[in-house]
Design a protein that fits this description.
The N terminus is likely disordered. The chain is mainly alpha-helical. Helix content is about 65%, strand content about 5%. The longest helix is centred in the C-terminal third of the chain and has 29 residues. It is built from nine helices and three strands, in the order H-H-H-H-H-H-E-E-E-H-H-H. It has a three-stranded antiparallel beta sheet with strand order 1-2-3, with helices on one face. Strand 2 and strand 3 form a beta hairpin. It has three domains: about 70 residues, no CATH class; about 45 residues, no CATH class; about 55 residues.
């Protein structure tokens, strides 16, 4: 795909824009994983609008010569922009995060803020340490072990609701005699156990 060529654009404006883009970010190679969304958009324009053809025959040749990174690395930056939008780059400016990790926590990144455990953190340089700590915590929450733990609690909650529905159903039947005594005893025993667990958790 890197070898695709078209007739080089002769538009002076296109030539000027390409020179301006290259001048803005000669050091792409040194910040390959930490460029801004604007940098990534420049890369995309250079590639998709074939602006690079005024300097090189192929995108493959253009990238290392004029941008200081391989065409594969440039394409990776562009893919991140297309998949995640500016949010990925805003977060990556503050803390190193791979596309895979970002994909797992993406729902927590909204409107240039990181939403983590009840806290809303603006994605600005002053909050770099807080953002890094929150991202690390969110990463832990998305590990297989954390997911298995959440699944266990979800399962317990589901079973508890089902049990309560069954008890409500039995109460509505207005049992008599031994059945009523057994049901009342069961409810009282459950209340005692649940209160003890409540106190144990410090709630």
């Amino acid at each position: 795909m890197d070898e695709v060529q078209t007739i080089p654009p002769a538009d002076d404006q296109a030539v000027f824009e390409l020179g301006e883009m290259i001048g803005r970010r000669q050091a792409f190679g040194t910040i390959a994983g930490r460029c801004s969304a604007a940098d990534a958009e420049c890369l995309r324009r250079m590639r998709d609008e074939k602006l690079f053809l005024t300097r090189a025959e192929t995108w493959f040749d253009f990238c290392p010569k004029y941008l200081g990174l391989s065409s594969r690395a440039a394409n990776r930056v562009i893919r991140n922009l297309e998949e995640f939008g500016p949010a990925y780059f805003e977060l990556a400016q503050l803390t190193r995060i791979s596309p895979e990790d970002f994909r797992a926590i993406a729902p927590a990144v909204r409107d240039r803020h990181l939403h983590a455990h009840g806290e809303v953190i603006a994605l600005i340089s002053e909050n770099a340490e807080k953002v890094a700590a929150a991202v690390a915590e969110l990463r832990r929450d998305t590990t297989p072990a954390a997911q298995a733990e959440r699944d266990a609690f979800t399962s317990a909650h589901r079973h508890c609701k089902k049990l309560l529905e069954e008890i409500h159903g039995l109460v509505r039947e207005q049992p008599h005699g031994a059945s009523k005594l057994l049901l009342r005893s069961t409810i009282r025993e459950a209340v005692v156990e649940l209160r003890a667990l409540d106190l144990q958790m410090g709630l």
